[in-house]
């Protein structure tokens, strides 16, 4: 390859990958793991068979945890090491997004899309979390890319890559199934509207349609062993704290996906910054639509890749408790591609100024992410309890699943009472009945006779104890003692020997 072609086509992408990597490893280990990440690490530390059993009892497929199992065996369990698997998935997503843009239109579209994603606050956030969302974004985008490659030039090799990447996405997160309707729309449209080099449009491309159906059958066969588990998970996991979406929630999700701004966060940036970001890109998209058929095709592809799965998730959320911002993270690459297509409609100087302005608006949420934003401080709270532990101490956990954080961070063997019940990662702990006076008295009354002090550690306490009965009961039967505050956790200490 000539040096000029390398500098023009690939050197910018290398720089974008370096920028994206720096943005994702910066402050990667500043905060400790939170409970979902602790679940990932604990489950990944089991045998592959137990990992499959544990995920079946939860609400996700096992591929991410199996990959993390192998990864932890190589790099250890530090916060940096645990989260770097997601960093790697995030960086590879930038490369695949560039390839999608290059194949769909031009290297310019791929570069601008990758640049926007490289500095996307929400994509950086989930690239720094030991969960499966960036892996889903990578595999979902790879599924779309390999399908497009196969549609352009069908072959057994390309079809196999498409089938494997799609099956891998389905085994990473159940939401990957919402990519299939978009891919079906695109494959049918390709087979019925594509023109050859002479401009002639065949009535129907049977070869591609039948080949696509064969690929779908292969995907279904690969997914079939897990499908009964998906049905069971959908029936069993209906959590009470996820509610159907409202128009304000939809608005906030769009702001969150594009700018990372949390408008309800105390001390956070004003919502006007997010609306300015959306207005600028919306104007660019409108200009791109007027420029011609090629720009319209780019916008339709990226817009449908985002819009079809997003609409299906929103629609299902009215019947099933599903709606959370993180469920849309795997669609952020498509959204960035759509915005990049709009920006390419601007003149070069205006495009550069617009992108500089958009990225400047990202500075506030990135500052929040790196310096002010905080996950629940399990590491710090448990370290405080370890430093101040005494013989005769008992820990009461709400929820009981917090025991996995004790196993990760505590140097002590604490006696534990958990609500709503004792936690078993192979069974799942976010199930059970809310606390009642009867269950409290039955479980804590006899136990307190054997201990001198009680530590109460709670996370999302209102879910299982909406009446705050645990605190009331302990304050009635013991004497409270001072304890420091920790972000998104409630830590209390009680003396049993000095009863009121």
Topology:
Elements: H1 3-9, H2 11-25, H3 35-44, H4 48-57, H5 63-75, H6 79-104, H7 107-118, H8 121-127, H9 133-152, H10 156-170, H11 179-193, H12 206-223, H13 227-236, H14 247-259, H15 271-291, H16 293-317, H17 332-343, H18 348-361, H19 363-372, H20 378-387, E1 393-398, H21 403-409, E2 416-418, H22 437-448, E3 453-458, H23 469-477, E4 479-481, E5 490-495
Parallel strand pairs: 1-2, 1-3
Antiparallel strand pairs: 3-5, 4-5
Helix pairs in contact: 2-6, 2-7, 3-5, 6-7, 6-8, 6-9, 7-17, 9-10, 9-11, 10-12, 11-16, 14-15, 15-16, 15-17, 15-18, 16-17
Note down, in words, how this protein is organized.
This protein is mainly alpha-helical and 500 residues long. It has 2 domains: 3-372, no CATH class; 378-495. The chain is 62% helix and 5% strand. Helix 2 runs parallel beside helix 7 (107-118) and helix 15 (271-291) packs antiparallel against helix 18. The termini are far apart.
Gyration radius from CA atoms, angstroms: 25 Å
Could you report the average pLDDT, rounded to the nearest whole number? 87
Largest sheet at a glance? 5 strands, mixed
Annotation, overall tally of beta strands: 5
Low-confidence parts: none
Walk across the major sheet and give the strand order. 2-1-3-5-4
Q: Which structural category do the helix and sheet elements fall into?
A: mainly alpha
Order of helices and strands: HHHHHHHHHHHHHHHHHHHHEHEHEHEE
Percentage of residues in DSSP E strands:
under 5%
Provide the helix percentage: 55-70%
Distance between the termini: 82 Å
Number of domains: 2
Cα shape: globular
Number of helices: 23
